[in-house]
Each structure stands twice: as structure tokens, then as C-alpha cells.
């Protein structure tokens, strides 16, 4: 892939969503249709993971962590019948907006400057733009998970500075899973943390960056050897 994905590339990615939307138009949305949608978006995810070898497999791992946490929280959150499935789709699609970010930013070894950081912060909104043609079929819960997965529990996150339970519970779960995986993967600017160290970081920022309830579940999954 080239260093920078062009406007033509982004139009192609949106075209995939448009074709998927036409393919399911007029049909009742069921598991098969959802899988068709996600398959099209996974094409986009493959593109971003091919650019950045450091995050290869990130999407699948985040989806796995979210599914485990969702199962633990199912009764507490009173998830609707397809809630776990929708949570998984949201996790799989959470970083689709990174497709338009250049390698010079994604793979930068040093600290990002103000402008570069602003580009990174726009990826949740860009993700929603990319999936707009299939937003109706994905549903608002999945879209909220994508859009708000970088909101912090204390309101210091982005893009909307939501806080506490204002943040959709899908996004609160993805926030913890995403951070845990990011910390345990080697990056150009720092070595990977051990899982134990990553868990300690989650506990350190419990109630500020991360929802306490979600951190507690992740810690329990670690303590029981499930992650």
C-alpha cells in the first residue's frame, strides 16, 4: 500500500458499503445479512492492518475480549437477544476510520505533534462516514460503539467528551479491550507491556479513562486465565 490512502481509495471503500447496502436492500436484516455487511467492512480492516504490522490481529483480539466481557456483563447490562452479536460487530469495526490515516502518522516512532494527533482523533467520525450506507442495517448500538470508543469515563475523551453512563455501554467495553490490546502489542515508539502490567494500567486509570465496572470484569478475566 502507498504511504497515504488517497481520496480515490476512500471512495472505493465507501463504494463497498454502498454495494453491500444495495445487496441487502428490501430484505429483513438477519444474521446472514449482518455477516455480509461485516465481510465488506473486514475488507477495509484488512487494508489498515496490512499497512501496520504492529496492529495485525488487533481487531480480532479486541472482538474476542469484548465478547468475553459481554458474556460476563450480559445479565447486569440486560443485553437484548442479539446484544452480544452486535457488540462483536462493533468491536470488529471500531477502527475502520483509520483507513485514511497515513503511514507517517500510524507508524511514527516519536510523539505525535498537535496536527497529527488531531488526525488520529478524527478516526471514529471517519469510521461512521465510511459505514453510512449500511448504518440503517447495522443499527445505532453498533454505530455508537464505533463512534464513542475513545470516550473516557471522566469526560476527557473524544469525539464528544461524553462521560460516565452517557457513554454507550458498547463503547465503554471496547474502550477497555482496545486499550488492553494496544498496551500488550509492540509499537514503534515503545515495547509491549506484559498482560499483568497492562491490567495494572487499567486499574490505575479506573474511573478516569475507563469505566470501573468494565475494568473489574477485565481484571477478573485475567485473574481466571481467560485472557
Automatic annotation (TrEMBL):
Gene3D superfamilies to which the protein is assigned, alphabetical: Hypothetical protein af1432
Entries under SMART domains matching the protein: HDc
InterPro entries: HD/PDEase_dom (IPR003607), HD_GYP_dom (IPR037522)
Endpoints of the signal sequence: none
Domain HD-GYP: 33-227
PANTHER family per record: CYCLIC DI-GMP PHOSPHODIESTERASE PA4108, CYCLIC DI-GMP PHOSPHODIESTERASE PA4108-RELATED
Protein name, UniProt field: HD-GYP domain-containing protein
Source species: marine sediment metagenome
Amino acid at each position: 500500500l502507498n504511504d497515504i490512502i488517497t481520496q480515490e481509495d476512500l471512495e472505493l471503500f465507501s463504494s463497498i458499503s454502498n454495494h453491500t447496502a444495495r445487496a441487502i436492500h428490501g430484505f429483513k436484516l438477519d444474521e446472514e445479512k449482518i455477516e455480509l455487511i461485516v465481510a465488506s467492512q473486514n475488507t477495509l480492516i484488512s487494508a489498515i492492518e496490512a499497512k501496520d504490522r504492529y496492529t495485525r490481529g488487533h481487531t480480532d483480539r479486541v472482538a474476542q475480549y469484548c465478547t468475553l466481557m459481554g458474556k460476563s456483563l450480559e445479565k447486569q447490562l440486560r443485553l437484548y437477544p442479539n446484544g452480544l452479536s452486535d457488540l462483536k460487530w462493533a468491536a470488529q469495526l471500531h477502527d475502520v476510520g483509520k483507513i485514511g490515516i497515513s503511514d507517517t502518522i500510524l507508524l511514527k516512532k516519536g510523539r505525535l505533534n498537535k496536527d497529527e494527533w488531531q488526525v488520529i482523533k478524527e478516526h471514529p467520525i471517519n469510521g461512521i462516514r465510511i459505514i453510512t450506507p449500511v448504518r440503517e442495517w447495522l443499527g445505532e448500538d453498533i454505530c455508537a460503539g464505533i463512534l464513542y470508543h475513545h470516550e473516557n469515563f471522566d469526560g476527557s475523551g473524544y469525539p464528544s467528551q461524553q462521560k460516565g453512563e452517557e457513554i454507550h455501554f458498547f463503547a465503554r467495553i471496547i474502550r477497555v479491550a482496545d486499550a488492553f490490546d494496544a498496551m500488550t502489542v509492540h509499537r514503534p515508539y515503545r515495547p509491549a507491556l506484559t498482560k499483568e502490567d497492562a491490567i495494572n494500567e487499567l486499574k490505575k486509570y479506573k474511573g478516569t479513562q475507563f469505566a470501573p465496572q468494565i475494568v473489574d470484569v477485565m481484571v477478573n478475566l485475567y485473574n481466571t486465565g481467560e485472557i
